[in-house]
Amino acid sequence: xxxxxxxxxxxxxxxxxxxxxxxxxxxxxxxxxxxxxxxxxxxxxxxxxxxxxxxxxxxxxxxxxxxxxxxxxxxxxxxxxxxxxxxxxxxxxxxxxxxxxxxxxxxxxxxx
Amino acid sequence: xxxxxxxxxxxxxxxxxxxxxxxxxxxxxxxxxxxxxxxxxxxxxxxxxxxxxxxxxxxxxxxxxxxxxxxxxxxxxxxxxxxxxxxxxxxxxxxxxxxxxxxxxxxxxxxxxxx
Lengths: 112, 115
Known about the structure:
The complex is a heterodimer of chains A (112) and B (115).
Chain A: E1 9-13, E2 18-23, E3 31-38, E4 45-50, E5 55-56, E6 61-64, E7 70-75, E8 84-92, E9 106-111
Parallel strand pairs in A: 1-9
Antiparallel strand pairs in A: 2-7, 3-4, 3-8, 5-6, 6-7, 8-9
Chain B: E1 4-6, E2 10-13, E3 19-25, E4 31-38, E5 42-49, E6 56-57, E7 64-70, E8 73-78, E9 87-94, E10 105-106, E11 110-114
Parallel strand pairs in B: 2-11
Antiparallel strand pairs in B: 1-3, 3-8, 4-5, 4-9, 5-6, 7-8, 9-10, 9-11
């Protein structure tokens, strides 16, 4: 599985866009990019995933570079409730017995 | 609204006790998972189940067993709790649709302390 690299922490002003980068330079052709977040004392929450096209849903946008070696999760108007650890995960569609494994993630602090 | 519930948020047990952690989902998902989360080690898969009465070992199954008698319920059993099983335990579920298998919905977690 491709490894991912994320900055350990980031700050963002409330109301501004939060742009969280993820490097996955060893990603292979059948691997998707998934984003989860974990708010303190809660279980992880699925945000979005993509293969090569940019994706958008009600929570966020995912921008994947053309060479697929990096991606950016965008929270368009960050709120205090978006303060969480954000995890970027790269996985093929189905790898038997090898499900989600979260690395260190990026601790996003949204400040008023 | 998607929901995964776990029987307890906090649990304190003694070494050697048998511990049951229950997880229920109301989304009619085929797949269910048990993870543990420890500082510095991230999330590690203990067991998963892709159907009633079916189970597969994850990365760290030693010291644990599971039971899935009904589709909506997946139980994690610590046969004889030990202090190194003190952790946050997270249950998750997902659809069997292979495009959605990593779109997992997590419960709030059970923080288990074994003394």
